[in-house]
Design goal:
By secondary structure, this protein is of the alpha+beta class. About 45% of the residues lie in helices and about 10% in strands.
């Protein structure tokens, strides 16, 4: 049987030929995808004005043109550089912003109406380690703590304000607790102080009269209650 070139056909079922055709198709698709990625990277670099992006749009377009023309990069280093350019052009993911802890709710205003009202008739009241003092013709009351210089708080229009920076946290809590106990019954708290200390809580004089000792307050200071 003689060979006729005109009627010769490549067997499409030949595995080697099929593989070669498939490989070529994949290479062309990969090249086209890389060209498109470089052009997209150039478009992302173009509007940027930072120093890092300077000139990179032109570099991306140059590499894309050469890849289209020659079908491949001239070296592996050039291919790696192209991949880096594409990656660099992508917007960076923003690091999640740490959520600030929720601010602790402001404590409710502490009001001491009973103690404030009593102090409008007194110039000074000492109970335990606390002393509340008021200047004549002034309704504002200052709070002092034994062993601390200066005042540690004030009572203005019945509202308590403690100066936390002038005390330790423990002292601050103790002063607040003591003032709240006094507020429950200021007159009874003043009398108890006199009985326990032997001194009048208003004038700080020693109680010598049996009746005054029993009462916890001297006769003159009692008239102010």
């Amino acid at each position: 049987m003689s060979f006729n070139p005109a009627t010769f056909q490549i067997d499409a079922t030949d595995n080697t030929v099929s593989k070669t055709v498939a490989d070529a198709r994949q290479q062309n698709e990969a090249r086209d995808a890389k060209v498109a990625a470089l052009k997209a990277a150039a478009a992302r670099f173009a509007p940027r004005r930072d120093n890092f992006a300077l000139g990179k749009a032109a570099t991306c377009l140059d590499l894309a043109a050469k890849l289209e023309r020659f079908g491949s990069f001239v070296s592996e280093k050039q291919a790696e550089f192209a991949d880096k350019l594409i990656a660099w052009s992508l917007p960076r993911e923003q690091a999640p912003v740490a959520q600030a802890p929720a601010a602790a709710p402001a404590p409710a205003a502490v009001v001491l109406p009973k103690l404030f009202a009593l102090m409008q008739r007194l110039s000074k009241l000492t109970i335990g380690k606390l002393q509340v003092a008021r200047k004549n013709q002034d309704s504002l009351c200052w709070v002092k703590l034994e062993g601390r210089d200066g005042v540690v708080g004030k009572i203005e229009a019945g509202k308590l304000v403690l100066f936390a920076s002038r005390m330790s946290p423990a002292q601050n809590a103790e002063v607040l607790a003591d003032l709240l106990r006094i507020e429950a019954d200021p007159e009874a708290a003043a009398a108890l102080h006199g009985k326990l200390s032997g001194r009048c809580s208003v004038c700080s004089r020693d109680l010598t009269d049996p009746v005054s000792i029993e009462r916890g307050i001297g006769p003159i200071c009692l008239e102010k209650f």
